[in-house]
Specification:
The chain is mostly helical. It has helices at about 5-20, 35-55, 60-65, 70-95, 100-120, 130-160, 160-165, 170-185, 185-195, 195-205, 215-235, 250-275, 285-300, 310-330.
C-alpha cells in the first residue's frame, strides 16, 4: 500500500480526539445506569456502524471473508478478548470518571499496543533507532500514568469528589482500569493479524485507506458478543431494563452519539494506520491513544471532575499530562 506519513498522522490524530471524548455523552444520561448506556453503545459502535461502513467501502465484502477464513477466526478471537477489556473500560469510566480513568486505561493500552506489534513483527527492531525512540516515548507515557494514578489517589483523599461520596473506592477503580488497559490493546492485535483481510480488500477494489474496515467489522462484532451479553445480564439481574420504558428520546441520542464517536475513532485510526505502512500499528497506535488521553483529560476538566481537587492533586495531574505530551511528541516523530 502507498505510504503517506503526514496524512496518516493527521487521520490518526482525528481518531484520537474522538476516542478521548466518546464517553462524554454518557454524563448527560444520568437517568440511565451504566448497562443501559453501554448496551446501546455496543450495538451502535460494535455492530451497526462497522458493518454499514464496511459494506459501503469494501466491494465484495463476503468474498473477502470467504478467501481468508483462518484470518477471520484469528481476528474474531482477538475481538472476543478485547470485548472483555471493553467492558472493564466502561466500568472504569463509571468508577473513576472520564478525567482519571481515561489516562490510566489508555496509557497502559498505549504501552502494550505500541510495543507488541514491533515484538511480533521483529523483536530486533527494538534495538534500532526507531525502537529506542519508541521505548523512550513509552517510558514517558508510563511516567504519565504513574503521576495520574498518584493524582487520582490524592484527589480521593481530598474526600470531596462525587465518586468518593458514592463510595466507589479508588483502589477498586484503579484495578479495573489496569485490567482494562491490559486487555484493550487486543483490538490492535486484531488489526495486526488482519493484514491478509486488508490485502484481499485492496485486491477487491477497496481504496487503500478503507481496507481496515474489513477488519473492524469482524473484530468489533466479536467484542459485541461479550459486551452485549454482560449488559443484558445486568439489565435482568438489576431490573434496570425498565429504565428504557418511557425514556426521553434524548437518552437514546446521547448513547448512540457515544457509539458513533467511538467507532469513528477506530475508523480514522485504521485509515491512518493503513497510510503509515509498518509504522501504523506502533507509531500510529501510540499517537492515537496518547491524544485520546489528552482529550479525555480535558473533557474531565471541563466537566468539573477536578473542581474540588486540592492544588497538590492538580499539580500532580498536570505533571502527568506533561509526561504524556512528551511521550506523544517522541513517538509521533519515531520514523
Amino acid at each position: 500500500m502507498e505510504t503517506n506519513y503526514l496524512a496518516g498522522l493527521s487521520l490518526i490524530a482525528v481518531g484520537g480526539l474522538f476516542s478521548g471524548c466518546f464517553a462524554v455523552p454518557f454524563n448527560r444520561n444520568r437517568t440511565w445506569k451504566w448497562e443501559n448506556n453501554w448496551l446501546i453503545w455496543s450495538v451502535v459502535a460494535l455492530v451497526a456502524a462497522p458493518w454499514i461502513v464496511a459494506a459501503m467501502t469494501v466491494p465484495g465484502l463476503s468474498g473477502v471473508y470467504a478467501s481468508e477464513p483462518r484470518t477471520v477466526a484469528v481476528v474474531g478471537f482477538f475481538g472476543l478478548i478485547w470485548g472483555v477489556g471493553a467492558i472493564l473500560f466502561g466500568r472504569g469510566i463509571d468508577l473513576l470518571g472520564v478525567g482519571l480513568s481515561m489516562p490510566v486505561m489508555l496509557g497502559l493500552t498505549n504501552v502494550i499496543g505500541t510495543l507488541m506489534p514491533v515484538v511480533l513483527r521483529d523483536p530486533g527492531e527494538l534495538l534500532t533507532s526507531l525502537g529506542i525512540r519508541l521505548i523512550a516515548g513509552v517510558v514517558m507515557i508510563v511516567l504519565g500514568i504513574v503521576f495520574y494514578s498518584l493524582a487520582g489517589s490524592r484527589k480521593e483523599r481530598d474526600g470531596r469528589t462525587r465518586k468518593a461520596e458514592a463510595g466507589a473506592g479508588f483502589a477498586k477503580g484503579l484495578l479495573v482500569c489496569l485490567l482494562a488497559g491490559v486487555l484493550s490493546p487486543m483490538v490492535n492485535f486484531a488489526f495486526v493479524f488482519g493484514a491478509p483481510l486488508q490485502r484481499q480488500a485492496l485486491a477487491a477494489g477497496a481504496a487503500p485507506m478503507y481496507t481496515s474496515n474489513a477488519v473492524w467489522s469482524i473484530a468489533l462484532t466479536a467484542g459485541c458478543l461479550v459486551n452485549a451479553g454482560y449488559c443484558i445480564y445486568l439489565l435482568l439481574n438489576r431490573k434496570t431494563g425498565v429504565l428504557y420504558r418511557g425514556s426521553r428520546w434524548v437518552n437514546w441520542v446521547w448513547a448512540i452519539l457515544a457509539g458513533v464517536l467511538w467507532y469513528l475513532s477506530m475508523m480514522f485510526y485504521g485509515m491512518g494506520g493503513s497510510l503509515l505502512g509498518d509504522a501504523g500499528t506502533s507509531v500510529g497506535w501510540a499517537l492515537m491513544q496518547s491524544l485520546a488521553i489528552l482529550t479525555g483529560n480535558l473533557a474531565g476538566l471541563f466537566s468539573g471532575e477536578w473542581r474540588d481537587a486540592s492544588p497538590a492533586s492538580r499539580r500532580m495531574m498536570w505533571l502527568g499530562l506533561a509526561c504524556l505530551l512528551a511521550g506523544v511528541f517522541i513517538v509521533a516523530f519515531s520514523r
